[in-house]
Amino acid sequence: MAETLETQAHDVIARSPLRQFHLTRRQALGAAVGAAGAMTIGATANPLAALAQDDAAPVSGGTLIYGLSTDPPNLDLRVGSGYAAATVKQQVYNSLIRINENFEFLPELALSWETSEDRLTVTFTLRPDVLWHDGSPFTAEDVKFTFDNLMAEESTASVKSELFTIDSVEVVDDLTVAFHLNQPDAMLFAVLQDSTAMIFSKAVFESGADLSTTLIGTGPFTYVGRETGVSITLEKNPDFWEPAYLDGITFQPIPDDTARVSALQSGQVNLIDYVPQIAQTDFENSDSHKLYADVVFTHMYLLMNQGTEALANPTVRQAISYAVDRDAILQAVFYGRGKTLTGGVIPENIGGTTELDGYYTRDVEKAKMMLAEAGYPDGLDLGLTVTSTYGFHQRTAEVVQATLAEANIRCTLELLEWATLLERFNNGPYDLMVQGGGFPYPHPAAIGSFVASKNVVVKASGYVDPEMDALVEEVRQAPDDETAELAYEIDQRILEQLPRAFLVGRSQAEASTANVNGYTHIPGGSYSGLNLRVTWLEG
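Given the sequence above, the corresponding structure tokens read:
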């Protein structure tokens, strides 16, 4: 779950394939949504080969050492527990489809798919001769079982709230499965490609195996074992339909930013995630390292729990948003590598707008006045919860604390390690919480993860707005030429209601040694792990 550069960052985005997707709001979804009308998409000979950006011929062999920003708290593929965990799971399991850095949907376990004219049935033709890591065959029964499990009434799966448009999953034959919908769903493909919707084995689950410790997938690497806090070891799956170049991957959790950067500089590891902004420029200009970054999808925000009496008042929430110094966060925490978020939050390249920018320009006196109007002339005292695992989260909270104090909003910091923070994030309690993350799916309806009342995190924050729920559902069903207007309405309502205050968009990056080739960053970071299968080591 974790996760945009004005000067140097514009150079990064200019070189990125994403730049070609900076279209009008109505055009942007054309490539992302295949559900508008009947269509069939088939596999190319090797759709992933194009992801390798290096000119040299790939070399097989070697083990990649990957320095992770945290030790994954949960390896159950049904549980979203951050980018680091997703990176590991993406090596072991597969979704039906996947995206590349241009947000194009590519075949994965499904070779092709067809959407009915009424947009209520999507039929997937599955890849033949796929084996689970235990040697048993993958079939349509596994797909049906996975989604029946994810959608079950008792399910606590992270993706459950996004599967409400699926009425049923039908096994047509061993290699054909049909998804029957209760309404058109323009975001369906975006959800199905996510790491929380990857397919698991019916037989393994029914054997009573714990999916957090028994990882048997169909992916390019097999799970060998884990030493908590030390390493997670994977080996190449020789039966994968396009075998990886690497012999294996060893993930080493290195939570400390400085230690993680030093490990890469010394050659202890080949690749790291969550490159701190202070180090990004050095890696970007280095001949011995490579930087992979985007400035589009990841941001920091301030959750405001409406179960707290003062925060139930939208005027208080608005006062907080006026009081916080976004530019101070951008400069002090992210060294200017990003942008302040003062308006709409839906990314421009998937239907958002910049027309609302400046809505929350800092105004401390206005914040004090609004607090007085709300019944707090002397200000108020609140708790401010944040993880200590990620330094940039904690530093963001410290700037929030200092700048809110100027408006007599006195915050007491509560520092939690990542797993405990996630528990509070999903269930409460807290007053204010600094969090970071990315836009979860490449479709404007994905804003529902932040504001729709059915989302578990939104429930925990106490925010319920029927009008917002209706807008999110409407944009999810809307044809492409209507999404821009709806996205604008949603952004505008977020700014008025303010269930959370979006603070800054930050650059999200990985870095590697120069001998790492073929790796490509997918904007947002949470999908980039998919490209480790085409990554290779030179020398």
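The longest helix spans residues 391-405. Try to locate this feature in the token string yourself.
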